[in-house]
Structure prediction request, 419 residues.
Amino acid sequence: MNKLKIGICGWGNVATGLYKTILDNQKEIKSNSNIKLEIVVIGARRDNPKCDPQNTIIERDIFNVLNHEIDVLVELIGGVEVARELILKSIEKGINVVTANKAVLYHHGDEIFSLADKKNVHVLYESSVCAGTPIIKMLHEELAANKVSRISGMLNGTSNFILSEMEEGADFQDTLKFAQKEGYAEADPSFDIEGYDAAHKIGILSSLAFGTSLPPDDFYIEGIKDIEANDFIYAAEEGFSIKHLAVSSLSEESIELRAHPVLISNSKYLANLKGVRNGIEIETDLIGKLHVAGSGAGQASTASGVISDLIYLSNIKDKISSENKHKSSKQILKIDDLKFENYINIKTSISEDNFASIEQVFNNNKIFIKKIKWKELSKNKSAVIIFTDLHFEKDLNKCISEIEQLDEIESVKSIRIES
Ligand code: HSE
Prediction:
């Protein structure tokens, strides 16, 4: 039996989850892989009352973990700059790295992978996207013969959990608190609800599949915090669910990269993945549409992904660089130049008889209205729900800012419809 000596850096929710899983599932790990995972040292700035590391050596300065005899550093401290420094030091010392940290890879991936390549060191990161639900090694290995043309999916478990619960009538803030308690949300949950976490993950997948850089050039990112209970009701009446979707799609000239809420038809596979689940649709030339779904956050799922990297590391004989050498020179398309159908929710005290003033703005901007519904919110207030035809994003933005200038308009919200 092979032995893999591990140094863990970080002693929070994810790291203690890994520690417990290595102990609890050691029989499965040994019998499925013939490998013994030995935790030699833990870099923990402070104790964690939820987990007793027993006799494992503890280093309060996490950088000292690299002075121990270890085969791999498991970086679970989170954050960006200290994590970058730690990973680069580990690579410099010739110590392999496993990380679950999507933010550090998003911001410094090219630098990290290129140094790893130079030093012949592995940097593995399965659980940085979708936690333990397999996607990184699948793209890298199982789909290696395929031309991938599009990756889309719900990549933030917290957002999918909140939206699924709201669809059933729950409150946004209560659900977010529950997600924090369960360890799904980031330490700073604005990363989840403002879309950055999903953006980090689609950036990593896009780099792997299409050679975009890490960090990628600017792309459109929007979160779920403006979605309200009524939006689910109005969307459901037309056969839609609301999801937070991240998309990377290849065309001849350019790459489409974006992360934002969408209305998605209930007939689509992704619409029906509820709760903390992540779901991805990959389009390839050889397989067609491939779907992957599973838990995308939390201690246990992340531990599963990290352990898969540790086992992979023990098994690989040849050094294969983690770096994607096929860097793309394609431009990332501006969201303004993309076309969408939209759901629009206008809160107004204008009566139905006086809709002409709003309609005129749509006509002037050549945005064709496919369907319109009036919903009474109170005696003097309505929500006008509009479903548009396909149009350029920039034309709708102009139309919305003109509507906002009209009298008696309280708010205008739009959500793209994913076709
Ligand atoms: N906060 C993240 C999520 C954790 O909700 O998906 C897993 O990356």
